[in-house]
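Homework help thread (please don't just give me the answer)

Our assignment gives two proteins as sequence + structure token strings and asks us to describe the second one. The first is just a warm-up. Here they are:
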Amino acid sequence: MKKILPVYFALFVVVWPVLLRAQNKIDRKALVQRHNVINSGTDTLSPLSVGNGRFAFTVDATGLQTFPEHYDKGIPLGTQSEWGWHSFKDTAGYKFDETLKTYTLNGRNVSYSIQWNQPGRNRNAANWFRENVHRLQLGNLGFLLLHKDVSEAQITDIQNIRQELNLWTGCISSSFTFDGEQVKVETYAHQGQDLIAVKVQSPLLAQGRLKVRLCFPFPTNQFADYGDNWKNPQKHYSAIVGSGASEATIIHRLDTSQYFVRLAWNGVASVKHTAAHQFVLTPLDKAAELTFTCSFNPKKSTAALPGFAQTQANSIQQWKAFWQSGGAVDFSGSTDPRAKELERRVVLSQYLTKIQCSGHQPPQETGLTYNSWYGKPHLEMHWWHGIHFALWGREKLLENSLDWYHHVKANARAIAKRQGYDGIRWQKMTDPDGNESPSSVGAFLIWQQPHFIYFAELDYRAHPNKETLDKYKDLVLADADFMASFPTYDKEHDRYNLGKGIILAQERYKPEETYNPTYELQYWRWALNTAQQWLKRLGLQPDKKYAQILDKLARLPQKDGVYLAAESSPDAYTNPKLKTDHPAVLAAYGMLPYNDKLDTVVMKETFNLVWDVWDWKDTWGWDFPMTAMTAARLNMPDKAVDALFMPIKTNTYLANGHNYQDGRLRMYLPGNGGLLAAVAMMCAGWDGSTTVNPGFPKDGKWKVRWEGLRKMP
């Protein structure tokens, strides 16, 4: 007996922690599915999307894109892919050099690609390169619903709507009645192809009153493109270029862009070209069920398409794998009334950023739903779109877009060379090939510059090996080379200044006058220090130029015991204009960690002043998680949660999870990504933090369980 007891004790010591962990393990399926989205009407801000990160398809209450005009002032019914781009013909022969303007800054001439104000060829050239290339709406796929008199249905004819997005499986199930007859629809997106699969069940099929219609819109060449521009039919071309008993291939050509759409179905049906850029799939076998797939591809293919059952199985398997990987946060059991809503936002933001932001290019701010800024990505926003993937243990989804920087580095190097700097200067507003877009703000922004070093460092923390170092070292060091050559030596004060010739992340400052912004100074320090660490990891000596800049980079500017947005703006908190847009001064100790150049007492005073005097109604969706990050680092968890729930329009999260901004940006994915980054940090903390759930109040109202998250730097 004496010998048995130690054995039992040893087993208890080994087994009990395992049982305890199993007991505390989050039920991920229950967590995710309690936030399935349910629609019961045709709210224009409630469309649902399926997608895979490289392709997304947004539907109305019918489960397809039947009524696009109804939604174009809300969240449009878009079909977009990362390969789908177009440019109108340049009949004027514009040269990119015509967009350049030379500024004399810090004693030398530097050229920037800007938007010209005065009429003339320079302005026309700038507009041309800004608008082209633009992202395409690839097609509108909806139902053709016919009354008994053969007139087409209006959206008001759709009744008894119940629609649900099953987040765990990636299925949108839609049910409605039309003329008293029920229609049931299931919509999936394939996770490896630009393809949707649909099952339709309705007596209307056998009656010939429910068909499927594919229409090709014309690009607007405007800031936005809602996918329902039917003008200019003579300016593009579409036709059936292949057909069989259960499949048809359609080409769509615009100028030099072309792509193919393939429809494949079960049963007896036909596809006909019924009007300009309209193609109708009509069931012919009088069955009450139709299943079909619709594939979008830049090249013609004859490979067999996966059917509905295959796509369904693919979606279910891949979404289960997604939700069971990486991190999860469960707020159930909390008594703070905001906890349930925060959990909803977190779950839906994971779904939306997965389908909209995890492709092989930095995403645009409205993802793969509709164009903003002509569909072009903004590299300063890539941080907000992407770092949460690494913090949530899904760094592969961030890695997907990091290879793009290798693809565009030649253009980035050309910008630096043109302006007289070393290394590579990352673009701001750009396109799939890294071409610079003229911008009177973007050309002067610099806070996108250290982002790549941040991305690479996050990936190294997840995979601290030689392979990671070798993969990113050239870009990390070329990035740092630019950062070391960019500051200007100030002989009078024996220091290096950032600027003049910059615009802050807070886009309210004139570039000709601005220098030494607090956030950018801290980001410069962090990035150059990190580059030195990379050199050490690579077995190389520290870079002398990096060290010189780090030693003498300007101190963080202060006035009256608080940090200024920039040394050049002592009126940062008295000038009403300078209390709008991003309160980016807070990012110096929120997005970024502590270093010995920062005084946390001064930063806390700065935080309190910004909290009290900022014009919060003139801010953006990522400003609230940014503020929460700073509050968390300052040991102000109550303020961190308050920041996430500040009652401001741009901090609105719609029923479908999208972060709403205004009538122009009805969805704004940097807000969703920022929320996920902030919550990961508030749970798992940051380097050096030891408090459990440091970003949440310890008032007994918050029960926060999480797993699979990683600390922030």
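The one we have to describe:
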Amino acid sequence: MIFGEIPIEDALGAVLAHSTHVRNVKLKKGHVLKEHDLGQLREAGVTHVIAARLQDADLEENEAAKRITEALQWSGVRAGPASTGRVNCYAETAGLFTVDADLINAVNAVDPSVTIATLKAFDRVEQQQMVATIKIIPFAVPVSVIDRIAELARGHTAFGVRGFAGSRIGLIQTTLASIKPTVLDKTRRVIEARIAANHGVVTSELRPPHASKPLAEAIRKLQKANDFVVVFGASAVVDQDDIVPAAIREAGGAVNHIGMPVDPGNLLILGELDEKPLIGAPGCARSPKENGFDWVLDRLMANVPVTKSDIVAMGVGGLLMEIPTRPQPRDPRPPTARPDVAIALLAAGQSTRMMGPNKLLATFDDVPLIRRSAQTAIEAGGRPVVAVLGHMAEQCSAALDGLNVVIALNKDYASGLASSLQTAIRNVPSSSDGVMMLLADMPALSVTDLQAMIRRFQSAGGQSVVRATFEGKRGNPVILPRILFNEVFSLAGDVGARHLIERGDIPVIDVELGEAAALDVDTPDMLHRAGGTITEPIR
């Protein structure tokens, strides 16, 4: 590729390096110059342009990105189209991201013109979440560079997503007189929520005395009917011959490792019986906060084996306990005394699981659900309330008639949630310091719930994410501060802003709202149980 200042008479077919605006001529960066363009530039008095000319041995940026995409091997991932030298790759299913770090490093070392960026190994991902991006930095790349990368990639899986396998899991909690049943009940709820988030199910629970023989019998009983078993001991493990490891061996199993260099999570036990995993859970796993148990559970539920060496390698990055950090704000604006919060009512979806009717037009106490949700947002103080409509927009708009809401039409609603978030951001006034993303199909949320979240956002100076939770697990709605608005436009497909929120560079404040934060009405049965009435026939 030849790059530099080129006389107009030699610029036919060259790629414009910078956007050009002269009189009535507007040409974007990357535009391939044609005779018509050159004529207009001459008339405007332009004699030279900064451009790139491709040589025979060069590949144009999109073709280069496409060829690298074709050379790489992966699983559980789909590639998007090549555009401006970039190909984004998305998870086909929820699961764990795996990556050959040595291969990615080797590819990135071939030539600075070609880059591949991915998530970290074993990051938990949702369906349609972006997991990698392939980017060609200049306008063209020599074919020889692409050939070298293809040779490196041959026979290797660069990255992939291991989908959650729908695991069946048995739960055992040993008992002592000092352990209250309410503690055991709470532990079960927390574990059930963790496992459900990974598309699995707790099939059964046993609560034997805290002694090796009854625990061994419980392990044998549940291990036969499940993919693996999780054991919570009534007291912490202090020795390899303590009750839980002794019971695993008495049941005929093996204890592969005790302890892990992750804090919290040190006292985890990794074992197996009949070639199925066994986990002795640390006490911290009774809490919904992230700990080392989550790392092991996620892998096993995605059918990723966990060995002693895997556990040992978790020490780097294993400091999860809460420690003071110095925040690094990305927006230099000083916080306002009382930040304003807009509320975006996300109501553009197609209700595909309702088998015909639009759930947002179902009624609760004779009020359409979308109107009920909008009234809640208005009374909570949304400034303003923006209703993002798409599917059946005319009927939904009619249901909002007379309410003080801004109607924003998402014409691209069929592409998924990301387009609705972007439509919302476009319609939030510049005076708003944050926007609450409120799903319109959550009938249990109250005015008090939304106001509690808004107050937390305001008390934090409008610089933090505020997220609703149910028993410590993330839920909805979520308030995004203005410092994240532009990044919403990097999203694509049926994904929300979760990975923007959870990457760690913006403070996140969780507000416990109870079951209301997790209750939506995606199916006719869920809607009826929530108290709604379907007014349209089910197909």
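TA reply:
I won't write it for you, but here's a hint about the kind of observation we're looking for: Residues 181-197 form the longest helix (17 residues).
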